[in-house]
Write a structure and sequence with these properties.
- By secondary structure, this protein is mostly helical.
- The protein has one domain.
- It is about 80% helix and about 0% strand.
- It has five helices and no strands.
- The chain has helices at about 5-10, 10-45, 50-85, 100-120, 135-175.
- Helix 2 (about 10-45) runs antiparallel to helix 5 (about 135-175), helix 3 packs parallel to helix 5 (about 135-175) and helix 4 (about 100-120) runs antiparallel to helix 5 (about 135-175).
- The longest helix has about 40 residues, at about 135-175.
- Bound molecules: fe (ii) ion (FE2) (2 copies).
- One fe (ii) ion (FE2) binds next to helix 3 and helix 4.
Length: about 180
């Protein structure tokens, strides 16, 4: 069974918890550490300068992206979930639809995925140059690849499960303004 099929069995509030407490927390926790190691490594291996720049921008943009989900979108999706569980009415999102912020989040997911694809190409698919004596080089690239893999799962859980379910709840429970 693939992991997305497992997540399909989870309730929406559990998926939101997972997203916040696993993906958002670890994006920040490991992103900063990887950036520090990558920056130190690039001082000896200047071919990594562009990768450092891309990764620095990635974790800065991801931090803002996660903040928007934490402060605006997910509190409302949680409200939608609670309302549907208790069969209570719920007010429209700022008198609009969550389709708009969701579109913006999905566009950001695309940009971020593209940025990490570029990092993959620039690092020869996360492979240290042949003959490199510096063992840290491959370790940092391995951690960068893991970061990319977790990002893919983060994006898939949101794009394929959380957002479609939230839109369905909105359509079923919110009267338009
Ligand atoms: Fe997220
Ligand atoms: Fe997101």
């Amino acid at each position: 069974m693939n992991v997305i099929e497992t997540f399909e069995k989870w309730d929406l509030d559990l998926l939101i918890d997972y997203d916040l407490k696993f993906h958002h927390r670890n994006t920040r926790r490991y992103g900063e550490k990887i950036l520090q190691r990558l920056t130190a490594l690039a001082q000896q291996h200047t071919e990594l300068n562009e990768v450092v720049e891309l990764f620095r921008n990635s974790i800065q943009d991801l931090d803002m992206h996660c903040m928007k989900e934490e402060n605006v979108l997910y509190p409302y999706i949680q409200e939608l979930f609670n309302a549907s569980e208790t069969q209570q009415p719920v007010e429209a999102f700022h008198c609009g639809s969550i389709q708009f912020p969701i579109n913006a989040m999905m566009a950001a997911h695309n940009d971020e995925t593209g940025r990490h694809n570029l990092i993959g190409r620039l690092t020869n698919n996360y492979t240290a140059p042949e003959g490199t004596q510096d063992g840290e080089y491959q370790k940092v690239l391995d951690d960068l690849r893991d970061f990319r893999d977790y990002l893919h799962e983060h994006v898939a859980v949101e794009n394929e499960i959380i957002f479609p379910r939230a839109l369905a709840l909105e359509a079923a429970n919110v009267a338009s303004c």
